[in-house]
Amino acid sequence: MYYNGVYHLFYQYNPKGAVWGNIVWAHSVSKDLINWIPLEPAIYPSKVFDKYGTWSGSATILPGNKPVILYTGILDANRTQVQNYAIPANLSDPYLRKWIKPDNNPLIVADISVNKTQFRDPTTAWMGRDGHWRILVGSVRNQRGKAIMYRSKDFMKWTKAQHPLHTASNTGNWECPDFFPVSLKNTDGLDTSYNGKNIKHVLKVSLDVTRFEYYTVGTYDTKKDRYIPDNTSIDGWKGLRLDYGNYYASKTFYDSGKNRRILLGWANESDTTDDDVRKGWAGVHPIPRKLWLDPSGKQLVQWPVKELETLREKKVQLSNHKLNKGEKVEIKGITVAQADVEVIFSFASLDKAEPFDPSWADLYAQDVCAIKGSTVEGGLGPFGLLTLASKNLEEYTPVFFRVFKAQDKYKVLMCSDASRSSLKNETNMYKPSFAGYVDVDLADKKLSLRSLIDNSIVESFGAGGKTCITSRVYPTLAIFDKAHLFAFNNGNEPITIETLNAWSMANAKLH
Questions:
Q1: Which uninterrupted H or E stretch holds 470?
Q2: How far apart are CA 113 and CA 162, in angstroms?
Q3: CA distances from 188 to 199, 200, 258, 475 (A)
Q4: N or C: which end of the chain has fewer CB within 10 A?
Q5: What is the DSSP pairing of strand 397-406 with strand 354-355?
Q6: DSSP secondary structure string, 382-440?
Q7: In the prediction, which pLDDT does 426 show?
Q8: Which residues lie across from 233 on neighbouring strands?
Q9: What single DSSP character describes residue 65?
Q10: pLDDT averaged over consecutive 10-residue blocks of the chain (511 residues)?
C-alpha cells in the first residue's frame, strides 16, 4: 500500500528457514519502490484466531486516512481458514512498524456453503454506491473457482452476498483474487472504489492448480454485484495471464502519490529445496510494474516502474545493425549479468512467416515454444536476445519472437526458454520453455523487447509490455563477469536491430 508518502510491502515469509512454513507477514518500506528498508514482521501467529498461520490478504485505506489490513488466519491443524483484521498501533509512526489484532476477530467465518480449508486471501475493499464496503475471498467448490463477496457498512460486521461476484468452472481453487477498475481513456490508475464513466474492471486470480496468474477484462454490474467478462476475454486456464513465466500470487494497489496502479508479484525458485537451504533464502520479488488497460480495451499492459531507471549506470548502444540468418552480435561494455536491455527489431517483409500448424491451436504457447525453440530455423524468427549466456553457448536463456501466418492473420509467439539455461542437471530443476502470444499489429514491421537481467532472473516485456515473461535460471558458467549477452537471428528473413540500448544496473540499497 501507499500511505503518507511511504510504500509498504507486506509479504509471506518464514523467519526460520528457506522452506515453506511458519509464515508471517514480513514488512519492508520504501520511498521509491526500488530501495527498501526491512522492518520487523507486521503480523505473526499470536492469537487463537491465527495460531496456526497468518496467510495472505490486502490493505485498505479507510476514510480519515486510516489503514487496515485484512488477512487469512489459520485456526487449527485442519487448516480452517478465517478472515481477520489488523490496524496500526501508532498512526504517527511514519513506518507503521507495529500492528494490533483486536479481540473482535475473526471478522468473517465460513458458513456451511463454503469450503473452509480453501477460503483465503481477502482483497482490498471497495465502497459501492450504497456506501457499503465489499471484499472478495478466493475459494472453490467442485473444481469451480469462486470469488465470494462480503459486504459491510462499518468494516466490522460482514455479510456474505447471495452469490459470488464471479465463478468459473473447471478452474480449481482461486487464490489471491484482485478486482479493480481501469481507465478506458489513459494510463492513469484509479482508486479501487472508483465507479465513474469510461472504465472497465479487471478480475485476476491465481490458479492454485496450474500456478497461472489469469485475468479477464469486463464489466462490473454494480446493481446486481456481478462481474461479466467481455467476450474478448477467455474465462479459464487458456485465458490471458499477467505473466507467462515464474510469477504468482500477485497483487495490485493504487498509488495515489503518482496516480497509477502498481503490480507486485512473487517469483519462486526453480531449483531444489536443498539448493534453497544452501542459499539461505528462497523467492524474489520481481520489479514493481505500472499496469493499465491497452487502448484496444482487450488486455492489460505492464511496464517496470520509472524509478527503476535511477539504477541505470554505464550505457551501450547499437543501431541499424543487420542480422542475417544464423548471425548474432555480442553486446559488450556493460555488466550483462545485471542489466536493463531495450531493443527494437524491424524486418522488411512478413512473407517468410511460417505457417501456424492447426494442431497447435489447443496447445499452450509454451508447448509450441518447446517444439519451435530458439535454435529451430524459421522464416520470420526466431530472433531476440541470448541472456545469461556462457562464452561458447553451453548455457543461455534466449528471449525471442517467432512470427507465424495463421489463416488470415499473423500470430506472434514470445518465448523465454530456460531449457538450456544451466548445465546443472538435477532432475528436480524446473527449466521450462515459457511463452505467450503477443497481440500486436505488425503493420510497421517492428517488434520491441525489454529484458531486465539480474543473475538468476530474467524479466521480459514484449511489444511495450503486452506480453510479460519472468524466468528463474541458475547458470553455472554464465555468472557475474563470465556472463555474455547476444542479439541473434535464426530465421530466413534478415532482421535489423533498429536501436538497442543496454545499461549496467547498480544494486538497489537495502538499508
A1: strand 467-472
A2: 11
A3: 11, 13, 9, 39
A4: C
A5: parallel
A6: EEEEEEEE-TTSSS-EEEEEEEEEETTEEEEEEEEE-TTS-S---TT----EEEEEE--
A7: 73
A8: none
A9: T
A10: 98 94 96 97 97 97 97 97 98 97 98 96 97 98 97 98 97 98 98 96 97 97 97 96 98 98 97 92 97 98 98 98 98 98 98 96 96 97 98 97 94 97 85 96 97 98 98 97 98 98 95 79
Distances (CA, A) of 316 to 35, 82, 311, 336, 495: 25, 53, 15, 11, 20
- Amino acid occupying residue 142: N
The pLDDT score that the predictor gives to residue 511 is 79
Q: In this predicted structure, what is the pLDDT of residue 375?
A: 97
Distances (CA, A) of 464 to 1, 399, 440: 26, 15, 10
Q: How many CA atoms lie within 13 A of 508 on its CB side?
A: 17
pLDDT of 510: 82
Alpha carbon 477 to its chain centroid, in Å, reads: 28
- For Cα atoms 251, 252, 253, give the angle at the middle one, nearest 5 degrees: 130
Radius of gyration of the chain (CA): 23
Residue 487 CB neighbour total at 10 angstroms: 25
State residue 407's pLDDT score.
86
Residue 301 and residue 465 in contact, taking contact as beta carbons nearer than 8 Å:
yes
Q: Report yes or no: 450 and 341 within 8 Å, Cβ to Cβ.
A: yes
Please list, in sequence order, all residues whose beta carbon lies within 8 angstroms of the beta carbon of residue 271, skipping any fewer than 6 positions away. 424, 426, 428, 429, 430, 474
The reported pLDDT for the residue numbered 425 is 77
Q: Per residue in 102-138, is it b (16+ CB within 10 Å) or e — as a string?
A: eeebbbbebeeebebebbbbbbbbbbeeeeebbbbbb
For residues 412 and 400, the answer to whether their CB atoms sit within 8 Å is no
List the one residue out of 375, 356, 348, 382 whose CA is nearest residue 491.
382
* Spatial separation of the C-alpha atoms in residues 181 and 185, rounded to whole Å: 12
Instruction: For residue 50, give the nearest of 78, 67, 71 by alpha carbon.
Output: 71
C-alpha–C-alpha distance, residues 125 and 154, integer Å = 12
Helices (H) and strands (E) in the chain, counts: 2, 37
Burial letters for 262-301: b for 16+ Cβ neighbours within 10 Å, e otherwise? Answer: bbbbbbbbbbeeebbeeeeebbbebbbbbbbbbeeeebbb
Peptide bond into 382 cis (omega under 30): yes
What type of residue is 115? N
